[in-house]
Amino acid sequence: MNRLESVLGLDLPLLQAGMGGIAGPELCAAVSRAGAGGTLALYKEPPERVRELVRSVAASTSRPFGVNVIPEVTGPAACRAQLRAALDQLPGHGFVTSFGLPDAGTALDIVRSGHVLVIQVGTPHDADVALRLGAGVLVLQGTEAGGHLLGELPTARLLRETRARHPDAVLAVAGGVATGTDLAQVQGQGADGAMAGTLFIPTVESAAHPYYKQRVVDASADDTVVTTRFAIGWPARPHRVLHNALTQNAPRHPATFIATTRAGDRRLPVPRYSAAVPVVETVGRIEQMAMYCGQSCSRVAGQHPATVVVEEIRRTYEAAGQSHDRSTEGEPWKTRSNR
Ligand SMILES: Cc1cc2nc3c(=O)[nH]c(=O)nc-3n(C[C@H](O)[C@H](O)[C@H](O)COP(=O)(O)O)c2cc1C
């Protein structure tokens, strides 16, 4: 068992990213049952619904799972309200992942609850701060990642610099991991494991719109771009998406409504350039919406149940581990005992 597995109670050193609108109770529970780090996205969900969602996951898996918050989207007060509702229902072995740094009060609430605090960062400086806030696990997000980007360094460099500053920290990487070989490779570079988002978009249990799932399956890394265009609802942070008519350098179209989508029990209009992803209940011009996608899409094939995806990673990871062990004797973080 490696350090990430032992801190979070997993039997594979892989976390599924909380993905707003996509990673609901079905995906989170399926990944958790498969032994990886299933994570429920709380995104902008109100506390009453958070309670219901966490309860529903807890009823479907006896293994550890996490909840994900985005303090910069909700603001600190709403984030703490979401967490109060979630922590009430989260089993003892659960964890909380934060996209970006939470404020000190929020971090303290989580640490005091006894759940492991996992913070995703994009710079070595934020990694330092996250550890001071009490994070038990850091997720280092490189620019290969799909979705909003926390920094400007590719995964390998961010990992190298952070590992040099924090030799004993539990570090996972996010961005570029979609196979067991990728996972073994980042471990060879000094990571304790990884977080993957794009890999899980096309799974059967993901709530992504079927058109979006197929676009991810068909895409290769060159079909993704970093843009700032889908800023309505989540401004001022670049994001990696599948390119479409709106990401080209063409003049901007008006931000009129192009679709409707679900938020809890309500239907909401979606303006062009909204940060909202197309989900299964979205109706309208799906191809113009924000389809977040990482460069690892090149290695994502087919729309499978999440268990099949996790099992396939486990199989290729173990196979890569065996060949890796033979070729890396003497390098401490590459040995089997560290896995
Ligand atoms: C569709 C999509 C939605 C995402 N939404 C969230 C989110 O709600 N919260 C979060 O912490 N990270 C979110 N992320 C970013 C992930 O945490 C992670 O950095 C990323 O998925 C890693 O890169 P990969 O997608 O190439 O595996 C999202 C990523 C994607 C692809």
Structure description:
This protein is α/β, with parallel strands linked by helices and 339 residues long. It has 2 domains: 3-205 and 299-338, TIM Barrel; 210-296, no CATH class. Helices cover 35% and strands 18% of the residues. The protein contains 11 helices and 14 strands. The protein has helices spanning 3-8, 25-33, 47-60, 71-74, 76-89, 104-113, 124-132, 155-165, 180-188, 210-218, 306-327; strands at 14-16, 38-41, 65-69, 95-99, 116-121, 137-141, 147-148, 171-174, 193-196, 224-227, 239-242, 257-263, 266-271, 283-284. An 8-stranded parallel sheet has the order 1-9-8-6-5-4-3-2. Strand 2 (38-41), helix 3 (47-60) and strand 3 (65-69) form a beta-alpha-beta unit. The N and C termini lie close together (6 Å). Mean pLDDT is 94; it is low at 324-339. The structure holds flavin mononucleotide. Flavin mononucleotide is lined by residues 17-20, 22, 41, 43, 68, 70, 99, 120, 141, 145-147, 174-175, 177, 195-199, 201, 277, 292-294, 296. Flavin mononucleotide binds next to strand 9.
